[in-house]
Amino acid sequence: MQHNKVLILDFGSQYTQLIARRVRELNIYCEIHPFNKIPKEIEGYKAVILSGSPFSVRGENALHPDLTKIRSEKPMLAVCYGAQYLAHFSGGEVAPSNTREYGRANLSFIKPNETFFNNIHEGSQVWMSHSDTIKHLPTNGVLLASTHDVQNAAFKIEGEETYAIQFHPEVYHSTDGKQLLENFLVHIAKVEQDWTPQSFVEETVEELQNKLGNDKVVLGLSGGVDSSVAAMLLHKAIGKNLYCIFVNNGLLRKNEFPDVLDQYKGMGLNVKGVDASARFLDALAGLSDPEEKRKAIGRVFIEVFDDEAHLIEDVKWLAQGTIYPDVIESVSATGGPSATIKSHHNVGGLPDFMKLKVVEPLKTLFKDEVRRVGASMNMEAVLLGRHPFPGPGLAIRILGDITAEKVRILQEVDAVFINGLKEWNLYDKVWQAGAILLPVNSVGVMGDERTYEKCVALRAVESTDGMTADWVNLPYKFLQKTSNDIINKVKGVNRVVYDISSKPPATIEWE
Ligand code: XMP
Of 30, 80, 182, 412, which is the active-site residue? Predict the structure, then answer.
């Protein structure tokens, strides 16, 4: 890509991805690389940002890459550990702070007229999170701002376009953090703001055309946002040479298979729906351990997908909807050079034996960007705004063993709940929702009859990435109506409970 790229060197901070997101929000393309793997073609980057870190520059395991090729060559913004690193290795002094420096602080400018502080007001709130502090500035350091507890809160290096800040501009609580990043990137480093969903689509389509030529590509659609947007991009690039396979594992939501298949066909995709419900149910028979259920589903998926892919003559590529958080190499918490790479395959495990090359058109995008890219290709909001749904589907929401009857009951319950959320305009306020069929029967009374039927739990959570989550405070009136509807409409259920557990310590799914 020919963008004005920004390089973010990661020293292992929990906030590194947030820096990248803020930069992208400025319509500037950026990449995260581990501190010990600085890309060779550094020329391609317009500016460099050094992230924070859980480490101390004074520690035995201090991370100190050789930045001589970058320093003074590229405009650089050093954040938190980055700032301490710069000070420590350039003649300054870093020492443990006397007071803990976590949370809010307010900027006092020493040099208020610096471009770095354009449109930022005296007293602006910033967020601190560090236990070391910079006692003395490095050689040629010029102090720009202080806070009540941190004298050297912002400085620059005379004669370079190097800036350093002790606080975190990327977090929400640093009120003018985004403005500060804009001041540095746009007004000091002169990076153009040319990265937009439209430009991404245009460039990616061109790249895909160059890479794939007349080759055939197979892609497993899941009904989710990532695989659907990946399919649309490939469709734009290679049209009918993209062969999409949408497998019904029998564990999807009620009517999801025909509805989503129609939607895909309406988008012009070359898609084949494969109903393999019976094959999945057979493989699941008698299994009640969650991991065994997951493995069985993954195995059958690969078998079905492989059978279908073999029907496509001369197919060369497997496309996947992998996104950026799945591929960012993270700096390990122990600081060793052994960085771990998260691997994740949306199709439930790559069928290696197919010997296909892999193409991943979304692997530089964050989730919200995938949605923006989809919207810029006029994909429907209902498809782009869908809640995440786990690959093993309802199998991990039916606790214990799975039968066709249990799947039917849960699909009905889930449909009442999800349709209700949509009718009450709550669907988009919830990150993920679903129903869980419990392996519990309880006594009820309907009319004059005693019943002894199933109990279901409803779960609705708010989250940004599924890593942490909290239950949603749904209106009592909605819960009341939903519970009534479920018990009245779904035969076999006589009790409904609402899950009020956060993650951690609970998880979103029950299995
Ligand atoms: P947990 O239950 O771990 O879920 O809090 C976090 C997110 O991951 C989804 N999830 C899965 N997705 N295969 C998937 O594709 C799985 O086996 C799986 N298990 C959980 C879950 O729905 C939530 O969005």
Answer: 80
Minimal-distance CA residue to ligand 1 atom 12: 390
| List 3, 88, 168, 387, catalytic entry | 168
Q: Which ligand 1 atom is the nearest neighbour of the CA of 467?
A: 6
Asked if 170 is an active-site residue, the reply is yes
CB 393 less than 6 A from any atom of ligand 1: no
Contacts of 257 (CB under 8 A, 6+ apart): 246, 248, 273, 275
- Closest ligand 1 atom to Cα of 506: 5
3-state SS track over 222-262? CCCHHHHHHHHHHHHHHHHHEEEEEEECCCCCCCHHHHHHH
**What pTM value is reported for the model?**
0.84
Both structure tokens of 205: 């389509």
- Report the C-alpha gap between 152 and 149 in whole angstroms: 9
In this structure, the strands spanning 93-106 and 141-146 are unpaired
Output the CA 509–ligand 1 centroid distance in Å: 6
Per-residue pLDDT of the chain (511 residues; tens, 9 = 90+): 556 899 999 999 988 989 999 999 999 999 999 998 999 888 899 999 999 998 899 888 788 888 888 888 899 999 999 999 999 989 999 999 877 778 889 999 999 999 999 999 999 999 998 889 999 999 899 999 999 999 999 999 999 999 999 999 999 889 999 999 999 999 999 999 999 999 999 999 999 999 999 999 999 999 999 999 999 999 999 999 999 999 999 999 999 999 999 999 999 999 999 999 999 999 999 999 999 999 999 999 999 999 999 999 999 999 999 998 888 876 765 544 333 332 333 434 555 656 899 999 999 998 889 999 999 999 999 999 999 999 999 999 999 999 999 999 999 999 999 999 999 999 999 999 999 999 999 999 988 899 999 999 999 999 987 888 899 999 999 999 999 999 999 999 999 999 999 988 999 999 9
